[in-house]
Amino acid sequence: MKQILSLLIVTIVSIFSINAQQLENSTLWKIEGNDLKEPSYLFGTIHITCNATLEADVKKALDETTQIVMELDMDDPSMQANMMQNMYLKNGKTLKDYVTEEEYKTVDSLFINKIRMSVKLLENVKPFFLSSMFYPSMIDCSLQSYEQELTKIAKKDGEEIYGLETLEEQLNVFDNIPLEDQYTDLVRMAKDNLEYDKNTFSKMLKTYEDENITALLEMMNDKTNKTVSEHQNVLLDQRNKNWIVKISEYAKDQPTFFGVGAGHLAGETGVINLLRKAGYTVTAVIE
After folding, report:
1. CA separation (Å) from 109 to 105, 191, 193?
2. Which end of the chain is flanked by fewer CB atoms within 10 Å, N or C?
């Protein structure tokens, strides 16, 4: 349950985009140069999917590295407790302070139909968590995750797992986005009974399977999602920039397998371009 909840967090904050920069169709990239003794690898994941089977080239990259670094340390025993502490609105606010009575009823109906519980029991929970509860409903299959697969491999091989940011840092991303915008998207989700979100997620899965990271970014620029389209600097740009120093430190210490949401790879301020600007040679692994 702890890992499922954390996956719901990284799903939202990891697949958003800015202006895309054309790159090869690949989710696996090799990091070399800039005084690295051995290469490291950068793998773009999708946090919730129907099939998280790792391809042969990804397994080979894992064999050639000695530690795994993801957005979060998925094996952190304090994650669930920290999550619970950050779930609730402050200053006594509730859902009713941000939506009309009619909108409240619409949201409540969605919760009853999809979650089998009334939103009345969750009125003081932040909108980010409320929205994330519906992600498992957006795919017509048993939920799988690349992060869970990578965690299993790390444990089997006795390798350490690290995170590029803490859970608190990820949650703070949404604390810097106006609650009004987040509730607008929650109401939108409820009004069409998740149809837009399900269709978008289906297209995103197909695009990810094609390993077209540029098209993935372009698709995520849809203005329908207000939280994403109007706050890309908070959701993506600044986080990518913060990661470069940490990626460099890990890679220089030992050959490292980095697994982050595929939406972070492409674009002018994507991880690939930022690493290149930092002096690394980053090339697509295509087999």
Report:
1. 6, 10, 9
2. N
pLDDT digits (tens, 9 = 90+) for 212-259: 999 888 877 888 998 887 787 898 899 999 999 999 999 999 999 999
Distance CA 161, CA 171 (A): 20
Could you tell me which residues come within 8 angstroms of residue 136 by beta carbon, excluding any fewer than 6 positions away?
Answer: 48, 143
Distances 215 to 52, 61, 202, 267 between C-alpha atoms, Å: 20, 24, 14, 10
67-70, strands of its sheet edge to edge: 161-163, 67-70, 256-261, 40-45, 28-32, 281-284
- For residue 109, the enclosing domain spans 2-284
DSSP code, position 125: B
Please give the structure tokens belonging to residue 168. 């608190």
Report how far residue 163's alpha carbon sits from residue 73's, in angstroms, rounded to the nearest whole number: 4
Report which secondary-structure segment, H or E, holds 283.
strand 281-284
Judged by DSSP in three states, 18 sits in coil
Kindly state the DSSP code that residue 201 receives in the 8-state scheme.
Answer: H
